[in-house]
Amino acid sequence: MPKFLIQATYTPEGTKGLLKEGASGRRAAVEQVVTALGGTVESVYFAFGEDDVVLIIDLPDPVSMAAISLAVKASGGLHTRATPLLTVEEIDEAARRQVPFRAPSV
Question: DSSP string covering 6-74, please?
């Protein structure tokens, strides 16, 4: 199952919701969305700095990640970035594949 790193920053409205529900309320909301699409939540961390929350989730496919991303962004409560995560074995497999690429010449 594909794994994704989600980095999010709350908007002022989203921060008001976090203050009202608490972190456990927001984690429950994340778990509900992810499990509804057949995925699992590996971890949720709140932070300060550039990102307010960092998650690692597993989803059945990238389309599920896109669906979640669209719904979350449409809410206006968060700005998010989703990064696909690859295992060591997946990178080893990628390194073995032949790619017919030619660098541009100057």
Answer: EEEEE-HHHHHHHHHHHHHHHHHHHHHHHHHTT-EEEEEEE--SS-SEEEEEE-S-HHHHHHHHHHHHH
